[in-house]
Backbone:
């Protein structure tokens, strides 16, 4: 299937045709994948730093053991072991699913290497793609449910932490509300706040009226009085010993300070009871607020769940609609492919029929040409045989004419040769006569006798003998035969 013909699922799950070029779509997908990878790496780094921070905070368990809080550290270690086992199990499960998806993708890639697009291959690729898609969707759903559970636990933990923080803030507020020992006998107290309980305002008014937390006494005197009074548990016998520690005070002043201290103790008890009641009311208010918040969150969660269910239902409907459209598109495509296949088969049959007809026509043309060539060859052979016969006949006639001409020429040559021989004989006779006359004249003039030596004609000369001394003989003896041009047979005997 071509990329331009492959349908795409849009954001709402509706089939959309791919109109962009493959290069553009690949670049956009690659850029989105890089952005997602960068975001994932940033989140991973953030989680890693958070884990390192929590690991550092684990040193609290060692301090707990040092302070004797073994029950708390034991619970933390057990809970940490349970969480570690759960993480390992989840990691193994996730790795198995990822390996399964990876194997499916590799199998799909191997099916695309050096293959021809056949219907069986397309069906097999569809099955592999559906398996990979089902694995990815199941992994997404599982991870989504796991993330939802983690978000619920996170909200619960956040609420518990907020409750504990408020509780700790209330503790610090209670500590701030308790009176502190000043360093001077006279203390300037703040005017009573109308928002504070009546007992707290009464205690502050009493301290302001009676001279502060020491009742107008010096800090050292007041501490000595408290030491003796606490030692005797408030019995009257303490007065004698107190008089010894407080020589500058009279018994009446000690009794008055005792009454002041009892009144202060009574007001402080009332204050503590009021603070406890205030804490209880605040705790109830906080519990009511937390409960109302939880109810609101529960209502919001139910509303979100309803929205999610509606969205999921709508998404499923859209998915089913998209699947239906996809199936219709596939059915339409299959019908088109069948029609194209039928048309292709019809064209193939028509093409084969035309090719067969063309081969038959060519065969007929070939046979016709061969017949024409055969007839032409036979005609040419006949013409050639006639031409050879004509040539043979002409040659015979020419041979006869030549024989006649030769005979005539021979007769003419014979006449000419005979005439030439006669002329030659006459010239020789005349020459012999002339030579005899010359010789007779010379003989008459020179009377000498010369011996004749015919062998001297064949003897080598002095120059030749000198030459043969340096070179050596080149032949085997005297020349016995001299080659010359051949004489015609009709002139050999002349």
Residues:
């Amino acid at each position: 299937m071509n990329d331009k013909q492959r349908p795409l699922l849009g954001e709402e799950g509706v089939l959309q045709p791919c109109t962009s070029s493959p290069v553009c779509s690949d670049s956009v997908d690659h850029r989105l994948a890089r952005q997602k990878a960068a975001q994932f790496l940033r989140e991973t780094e953030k989680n890693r730093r958070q884990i390192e921070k929590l690991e550092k905070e684990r040193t609290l368990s060692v301090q707990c053991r040092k302070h004797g809080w073994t029950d708390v550290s034991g619970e933390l270690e057990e809970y940490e072991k349970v969480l570690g086992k759960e993480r390992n199990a989840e990691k193994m499960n996730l790795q198995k699913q990822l390996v399964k998806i990876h194997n499916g993708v590799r199998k799909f890639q191997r099916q695309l290497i050096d293959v021809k697009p056949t219907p069986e291959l397309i069906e097999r690729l569809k099955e592999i793609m559906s398996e990979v898609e089902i694995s990815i969707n199941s992994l997404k759903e599982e991870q989504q449910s796991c993330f939802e559970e983690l978000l619920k636990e996170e909200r619960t933990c956040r609420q518990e932490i907020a409750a504990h923080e408020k509780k700790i803030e209330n503790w610090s507020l209670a500590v701030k509300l308790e009176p502190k020992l000043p360093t001077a006998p006279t203390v300037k107290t703040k005017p009573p706040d109308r928002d504070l309980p009546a007992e707290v305002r009464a205690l502050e008014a009493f301290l302001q009226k009676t001279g502060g937390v020491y009742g107008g006494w010096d800090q050292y005197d007041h501490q000595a009085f408290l030491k003796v009074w606490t030692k005797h548990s408030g019995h009257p016998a303490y007065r004698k010993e107190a008089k010894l520690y407080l020589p500058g005070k009279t018994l009446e002043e000690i009794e008055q300070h005792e009454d002041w201290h009892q009144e202060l103790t009574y007001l402080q008890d009332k204050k503590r009871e009021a603070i406890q009641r205030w804490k209880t009311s605040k705790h109830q208010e906080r519990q009511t607020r937390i409960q109302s918040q939880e109810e609101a969150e529960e209502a919001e969660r139910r509303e979100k769940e309803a929205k999610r269910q509606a969205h999921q239902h709508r998404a499923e409907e859209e998915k089913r609609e998209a699947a239906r459209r996809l199936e219709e598109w596939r059915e339409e495509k299959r019908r088109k492919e069948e029609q194209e296949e039928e048309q292709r088969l019809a064209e193939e049959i028509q093409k084969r029929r035309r090719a067969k007809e063309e081969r038959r026509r060519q065969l007929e043309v070939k046979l016709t040409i061969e017949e024409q060539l055969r007839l032409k060859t036979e005609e040419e052979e006949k013409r050639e045989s006639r031409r050879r016969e004509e040539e043979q006949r002409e040659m015979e006639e020419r041979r006869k004419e030549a024989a006649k001409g030769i005979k005539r020429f021979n007769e003419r040559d014979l006449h000419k040769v005979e005439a030439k021989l006669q002329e030659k004989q006459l010239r020789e006779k005349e020459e012999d006569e002339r030579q005899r006359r010359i010789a007779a004249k010379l003989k008459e003039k020179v009377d000498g006798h010369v011996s004749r030596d015919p062998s001297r004609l064949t003897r080598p000369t002095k120059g030749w003998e000198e030459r043969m001394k340096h070179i050596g003989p080149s032949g085997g003896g005297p020349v016995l035969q001299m080659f010359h041009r051949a004489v015609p047979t009709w002139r050999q005997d002349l």
